[in-house]
Amino acid sequence: MASRKRKPVWFAATALAGSLVVGLAIGFVAFARTVTVAAPPVDPRAEGIVVLTGGTARIDGALALLAEGRAQRLLISGVNPVVTRETLAETVEDGVRPVLACCVDLDHARDTIENASETQRWVEEQGFRSLIVVTSDYHMPRSMAELGGTMPDVELIAFPVSNPDLRLDDWWRDSATFGLLAREYGKFLAAEARQLLPITRPARAAGR
Protein backbone atom coordinates (compact mmCIF):
# COMPACT_ATOMS: atom_id res chain seq x y z
CA MET A 1 0.00 0.00 0.00
CA ALA A 2 2.84 2.40 0.89
CA SER A 3 4.58 1.79 -2.45
CA ARG A 4 1.37 2.68 -4.30
CA LYS A 5 1.25 6.03 -2.50
CA ARG A 6 4.86 6.85 -3.34
CA LYS A 7 4.56 6.07 -7.03
CA PRO A 8 2.59 9.20 -8.04
CA VAL A 9 5.12 11.38 -6.20
CA TRP A 10 8.03 9.65 -7.91
CA PHE A 11 6.32 9.95 -11.28
CA ALA A 12 5.59 13.67 -10.79
CA ALA A 13 9.19 14.34 -9.72
CA THR A 14 10.54 12.47 -12.75
CA ALA A 15 8.19 14.31 -15.09
CA LEU A 16 9.17 17.65 -13.56
CA ALA A 17 12.88 16.86 -13.90
CA GLY A 18 12.38 15.75 -17.48
CA SER A 19 10.48 18.92 -18.33
CA LEU A 20 13.24 21.00 -16.77
CA VAL A 21 15.93 19.25 -18.81
CA VAL A 22 13.93 19.67 -22.02
CA GLY A 23 13.30 23.33 -21.23
CA LEU A 24 17.00 23.97 -20.57
CA ALA A 25 17.94 22.19 -23.79
CA ILE A 26 15.48 24.24 -25.84
CA GLY A 27 16.67 27.41 -24.16
CA PHE A 28 20.30 26.55 -24.87
CA VAL A 29 19.60 26.00 -28.56
CA ALA A 30 17.76 29.32 -28.71
CA PHE A 31 20.66 31.00 -26.90
CA ALA A 32 23.19 29.52 -29.33
CA ARG A 33 21.03 30.61 -32.25
CA THR A 34 20.90 34.17 -30.90
CA VAL A 35 24.68 34.26 -30.61
CA THR A 36 25.36 32.82 -34.06
CA VAL A 37 23.14 35.32 -35.89
CA ALA A 38 24.20 38.34 -33.83
CA ALA A 39 25.45 41.22 -35.94
CA PRO A 40 26.37 44.82 -35.15
CA PRO A 41 23.91 47.55 -36.15
CA VAL A 42 24.66 49.44 -39.35
CA ASP A 43 24.70 52.97 -37.90
CA PRO A 44 24.99 52.85 -34.10
CA ARG A 45 24.96 56.18 -32.29
CA ALA A 46 24.78 56.98 -28.58
CA GLU A 47 26.14 59.36 -25.99
CA GLY A 48 28.71 56.89 -24.69
CA ILE A 49 30.40 53.57 -25.44
CA VAL A 50 31.47 50.84 -23.05
CA VAL A 51 33.69 47.95 -24.09
CA LEU A 52 34.08 44.95 -21.81
CA THR A 53 37.64 43.71 -22.12
CA GLY A 54 38.54 40.17 -23.08
CA GLY A 55 40.16 40.53 -26.48
CA THR A 56 41.93 43.12 -28.60
CA ALA A 57 39.20 42.96 -31.25
CA ARG A 58 36.72 44.35 -28.74
CA ILE A 59 38.88 47.36 -27.88
CA ASP A 60 39.80 48.03 -31.50
CA GLY A 61 36.13 47.95 -32.46
CA ALA A 62 35.13 50.33 -29.67
CA LEU A 63 37.93 52.79 -30.45
CA ALA A 64 36.94 52.74 -34.12
CA LEU A 65 33.37 53.66 -33.18
CA LEU A 66 34.62 56.53 -31.04
CA ALA A 67 36.96 57.74 -33.79
CA GLU A 68 34.02 57.75 -36.21
CA GLY A 69 32.17 60.13 -33.89
CA ARG A 70 29.44 57.68 -32.93
CA ALA A 71 29.65 58.68 -29.26
CA GLN A 72 31.21 61.34 -27.07
CA ARG A 73 33.28 59.17 -24.77
CA LEU A 74 34.40 55.57 -24.20
CA LEU A 75 34.81 53.46 -21.08
CA ILE A 76 37.15 50.46 -21.32
CA SER A 77 35.89 48.30 -18.46
CA GLY A 78 37.93 45.50 -16.92
CA VAL A 79 41.45 46.69 -17.68
CA ASN A 80 44.24 44.92 -15.80
CA PRO A 81 45.56 47.31 -13.11
CA VAL A 82 49.08 47.08 -14.56
CA VAL A 83 47.87 48.23 -18.00
CA THR A 84 48.05 51.98 -18.57
CA ARG A 85 46.70 54.25 -21.27
CA GLU A 86 50.21 54.35 -22.74
CA THR A 87 50.34 50.55 -22.82
CA LEU A 88 47.05 50.43 -24.70
CA ALA A 89 48.29 53.04 -27.16
CA GLU A 90 51.08 50.68 -28.18
CA THR A 91 48.59 47.95 -29.11
CA VAL A 92 46.13 49.94 -31.23
CA GLU A 93 46.27 51.41 -34.71
CA ASP A 94 47.75 54.87 -35.19
CA GLY A 95 44.46 56.28 -36.45
CA VAL A 96 42.64 55.78 -33.13
CA ARG A 97 45.39 56.92 -30.75
CA PRO A 98 44.15 60.54 -30.63
CA VAL A 99 40.77 59.51 -29.21
CA LEU A 100 42.49 57.19 -26.74
CA ALA A 101 44.36 60.18 -25.35
CA CYS A 102 41.39 62.57 -25.13
CA CYS A 103 38.15 60.70 -24.72
CA VAL A 104 38.70 57.34 -23.02
CA ASP A 105 38.33 56.26 -19.40
CA LEU A 106 39.48 53.00 -17.80
CA ASP A 107 38.27 50.89 -14.89
CA HIS A 108 39.55 47.69 -13.31
CA ALA A 109 36.39 45.59 -12.99
CA ARG A 110 37.16 41.90 -12.40
CA ASP A 111 34.05 40.29 -13.87
CA THR A 112 30.82 41.07 -15.72
CA ILE A 113 28.98 41.99 -12.52
CA GLU A 114 31.62 44.58 -11.69
CA ASN A 115 31.62 45.72 -15.33
CA ALA A 116 27.96 46.60 -14.86
CA SER A 117 28.42 48.45 -11.56
CA GLU A 118 31.46 50.40 -12.78
CA THR A 119 29.66 51.28 -16.01
CA GLN A 120 26.64 52.49 -14.07
CA ARG A 121 28.86 54.77 -11.98
CA TRP A 122 30.55 56.14 -15.12
CA VAL A 123 27.26 56.70 -16.94
CA GLU A 124 25.86 58.63 -13.97
CA GLU A 125 29.00 60.76 -13.73
CA GLN A 126 28.81 61.57 -17.44
CA GLY A 127 25.05 62.09 -17.43
CA PHE A 128 24.56 59.73 -20.38
CA ARG A 129 21.21 58.23 -21.30
CA SER A 130 22.32 55.96 -24.16
CA LEU A 131 25.21 53.55 -24.50
CA ILE A 132 26.76 51.35 -27.18
CA VAL A 133 27.85 48.05 -25.60
CA VAL A 134 30.84 46.36 -27.25
CA THR A 135 31.78 42.80 -26.33
CA SER A 136 32.07 39.35 -27.92
CA ASP A 137 28.92 37.95 -29.52
CA TYR A 138 28.75 34.97 -27.13
CA HIS A 139 29.20 37.31 -24.13
CA MET A 140 26.60 39.85 -25.26
CA PRO A 141 23.40 38.27 -23.80
CA ARG A 142 24.90 38.10 -20.30
CA SER A 143 26.41 41.56 -20.59
CA MET A 144 23.09 43.08 -21.64
CA ALA A 145 21.34 41.32 -18.76
CA GLU A 146 23.81 42.65 -16.18
CA LEU A 147 23.97 46.17 -17.63
CA GLY A 148 20.22 46.35 -18.12
CA GLY A 149 19.69 45.32 -14.52
CA THR A 150 21.88 48.12 -13.16
CA MET A 151 20.78 50.78 -15.68
CA PRO A 152 17.13 50.12 -16.61
CA ASP A 153 16.59 53.69 -17.79
CA VAL A 154 19.60 53.80 -20.11
CA GLU A 155 19.22 52.82 -23.77
CA LEU A 156 21.65 49.99 -24.52
CA ILE A 157 22.73 49.30 -28.10
CA ALA A 158 24.44 45.94 -28.58
CA PHE A 159 27.52 45.92 -30.81
CA PRO A 160 28.74 42.30 -30.86
CA VAL A 161 32.26 41.45 -32.00
CA SER A 162 32.96 38.03 -33.50
CA ASN A 163 35.95 35.87 -32.64
CA PRO A 164 37.20 34.24 -35.87
CA ASP A 165 38.73 31.39 -33.85
CA LEU A 166 35.29 30.19 -32.72
CA ARG A 167 33.30 27.83 -34.93
CA LEU A 168 29.91 29.36 -34.26
CA ASP A 169 28.42 28.31 -37.59
CA ASP A 170 28.58 24.65 -36.56
CA TRP A 171 28.95 25.00 -32.80
CA TRP A 172 27.30 21.63 -32.12
CA ARG A 173 30.14 19.85 -33.94
CA ASP A 174 33.04 21.59 -32.20
CA SER A 175 33.53 20.54 -28.58
CA ALA A 176 35.42 23.70 -27.57
CA THR A 177 32.77 26.04 -28.97
CA PHE A 178 29.95 23.89 -27.60
CA GLY A 179 31.52 23.95 -24.13
CA LEU A 180 32.04 27.72 -24.26
CA LEU A 181 28.42 28.33 -25.23
CA ALA A 182 27.16 25.92 -22.57
CA ARG A 183 29.14 27.69 -19.84
CA GLU A 184 28.05 31.09 -21.08
CA TYR A 185 24.43 29.94 -21.18
CA GLY A 186 24.64 28.90 -17.53
CA LYS A 187 26.13 32.26 -16.58
CA PHE A 188 23.44 34.04 -18.60
CA LEU A 189 20.70 32.18 -16.73
CA ALA A 190 22.33 33.13 -13.42
CA ALA A 191 22.47 36.78 -14.53
CA GLU A 192 18.80 36.71 -15.53
CA ALA A 193 17.85 35.12 -12.21
CA ARG A 194 19.85 37.72 -10.30
CA GLN A 195 17.80 40.50 -11.87
CA LEU A 196 14.69 39.04 -10.20
CA LEU A 197 16.22 39.38 -6.73
CA PRO A 198 15.69 42.56 -4.70
CA ILE A 199 18.85 44.65 -4.66
CA THR A 200 19.63 47.25 -2.02
CA ARG A 201 21.96 49.86 -3.44
CA PRO A 202 24.26 51.73 -1.06
CA ALA A 203 23.26 55.31 -0.37
CA ARG A 204 25.22 57.82 -2.39
CA ALA A 205 27.20 60.44 -0.58
CA ALA A 206 25.87 63.99 -0.67
CA GLY A 207 27.20 66.05 -3.53
CA ARG A 208 27.98 63.02 -5.73
UniProtKB/TrEMBL annotation:
<dbReference type="InterPro" id="IPR014729">
    <property type="entry name" value="Rossmann-like_a/b/a_fold"/>
</dbReference>
<dbReference type="InterPro" id="IPR051599">
    <property type="entry name" value="Cell_Envelope_Assoc"/>
</dbReference>
<dbReference type="Pfam" id="PF02698">
    <property type="entry name" value="DUF218"/>
</dbReference>
<protein>
    <submittedName>
        <fullName>Uncharacterized SAM-binding protein YcdF, DUF218 family</fullName>
    </submittedName>
</protein>
<dbReference type="GO" id="GO:0043164">
    <property type="term" value="P:Gram-negative-bacterium-type cell wall biogenesis"/>
</dbReference>
<dbReference type="GO" id="GO:0005886">
    <property type="term" value="C:plasma membrane"/>
</dbReference>
<dbReference type="GO" id="GO:0000270">
    <property type="term" value="P:peptidoglycan metabolic process"/>
</dbReference>
<feature type="domain" description="DUF218">
    <location>
        <begin position="48"/>
        <end position="185"/>
    </location>
</feature>
<dbReference type="InterPro" id="IPR003848">
    <property type="entry name" value="DUF218"/>
</dbReference>
